[in-house]
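Bit of a strange request maybe. I'm writing a small parser for structure token strings and I need a real example to test against, not something I typed by hand. Could someone generate the tokens for this chain?
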Amino acid sequence: MTRPARARRLAPEARRRALVEATLPLVLRHGAAVSTRQIALAAGVAEGTIFSVFPHKEALMRAVTAAALDPASTLRELADVDGSLPLRARLVAGVEILQSRLTGVFGLLDALGMHRPPDEEECDHPAPSTMNDAFRVAIADLVGPDADALRVPPGELAHVLRLLVFSGTHPRICDGAPLTAEQIVTVVLDGYSHHHCDHHHGGTRSC
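Reply from user aminoacidic:
Good idea to test on real output. This should exercise your parser:
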């Protein structure tokens, strides 16, 4: 078997990031049983290099979990959604980004046999309340100038949307039948838009 080429010399923070990135897919495949030898091979480094960056394997695993929970890259993706798209398309794009994050987080927790994310004291990541607030703001920002098309404030739509994304994506909550981004946005947007009409006594009435 051909060994992977040794990785080039990196600055300490870059080496730490490279090891975390190489470890994550291995954890998803092997769970906590992944060996430092497997990690070293995937990262293209000597096994001892891992311990020059992390004091022990558990520290590396905590760093992997923290990286998976870190909301920064997801928030950047939400901020980069094309603002010229129609509201519905912007929200669908946002939901797809959130679902991708949650799928990764749920997969990691399942691989590690964890029923919930670790506390921020156990793993260096923002507190859940801080993350939740940041995501609500990011989703509300997607509404932007179309806020007048809603019957509720953008922040309320963002709250309900996140609840649907979480429950509709979690494999156990959704009974193995996850909601699509389009389904989630249809439920939320059509239920909260001014144009939504209700059938009443055989006719229709405007909201």
